[in-house]
Amino acid sequence: MNFVEELRWRGMLNDMMPGTEELLNKEQVTAYLGIDPTADSLHIGHLCGVMMLRHLQRCGHKPLALVGGATGMIGDPSGKSAERNLLDEATLYHNQECIKQQLAKFLDFESDAPNRAELVNNYEWMKNFTFLDFAREVGKHITVNYMMAKDSVKRRLNGEARDGLSFTEFTYQLLQGYDFLHLYETKGCKLQMGGSDQWGNITTGAELIRRTNGGEVFALTCPLITKADGGKFGKTESGNIWLDARYTSPYKFYQFWLNVSDSDAERYIKIFTSIGKEEIDALIAEHRENPHLRVLQKRLAKEVTIMVHSEDDYNAAVDASNILFGNATSEALRKLDEDTLLAVFEGVPQFEISRDALAEGVKAVDLFVDNAAVFASKGEMRKLVQGGGVSLNKEKLTAFDQTITVADLLDEKYLLVQRGKKNYYLLIAK
């Protein structure tokens, strides 16, 4: 497989230095991509870079995932309008270990293959580097004029940032440049990859290597992923879409991909899966014939959810989706954990009911009219029950005065009432 061609047809190639493709076609190349450990989970904004490393390894090259333990303590001005908070050593170490576990789902770190992936942390080679040594060995090679010409620096100095640019952040490109130099000298790394906003930092590293030891290295960037409407990719009203199930449940993760627009689905299935070109072309053609079937979105959501979580999590997410939109059974509903149940029925009307009343047993008509205003009147409820239009926990209610007890609760806490086909109500026993 040709790595550059693979990125090109997938829409993952933004820019590269002359000679990069020739190098990759000539030999097995060691390449690195930096990941900022500012949280203990990656989010889907990291996924394009991670997929670049995955495709690199699939094409026979050796990926290095660099966790920026040192640079994460400082903060990169690229694409930012404000300086970020600095993290302590213990937090950074914790974040690094969590990120490594996530990366292991995408990259082969364990085999004996010559191109097995490695995780490196720039804190290891920076922690004992004194300021004087850094100024003498690194700083003297790159002029301030060269550093000031970078777009990331100019934007911050031209008034886009209220607080300007600290010296700490100004030195970031030198630190990242030194990472490239160190990996070139110790790992034979000849290629650095990253998002298009990293171009300035990457080329500083290439220039540092040229000026210190005359070495020739290369750069390749992917475009920053956006939505078709120009909005920021991966951001929702509730924040980032995380890869860690503690922060974004597999159900919500699956729903994010399932609900992307048609034009975004055509782009994202190339970028965020490993499906081959012929199959993707066939999927796109099938989708365009019957867009209402959402073939692309369903396949995209399946591939990414299984890759990031597991097949079991994917199946559970599909079952959960069917509860809201399909003809799911009471058994399927009872399988949901509390977090998924609340995620599925987020936004539906909720009512608090008395657990003590349920312990004694209460008639459905009293519970759903007097205790929780699911129905406007007892007459309305009676009529709907007789017509088969009321369900409790996905089972048809056969008698409007059926006794409801604590035994009916889902997760010992919830009752799900369905009026008609689309109107759901969640009753919470307290």
TrEMBL record:
Localization per Swiss-Prot or TrEMBL: Cytoplasm
Keyword line: Aminoacyl-tRNA synthetase, ATP-binding, Cytoplasm, Ligase, Nucleotide-binding, Protein biosynthesis, RNA-binding
Signal peptide span: none
GO-annotated molecular function: ATP binding; protein homodimerization activity; RNA binding; tyrosine-tRNA ligase activity
Entry's family note: Belongs to the class-I aminoacyl-tRNA synthetase family. TyrS type 1 subfamily.
EC supergroup of this enzyme: ligase
Subunit comment: Homodimer.
Listed EC numbers: 6.1.1.1
NCBIfam families listed in its UniProt record: tyrS
Protein name according to UniProt: Tyrosine--tRNA ligase
Its biological purpose: Catalyzes the attachment of tyrosine to tRNA(Tyr) in a two-step reaction: tyrosine is first activated by ATP to form Tyr-AMP and then transferred to the acceptor end of tRNA(Tyr).
Motif 'HIGH' region: where in chain: 37-46
Organism: Bacteroides faecalis
Motif segment ('KMSKS' region): 232-236
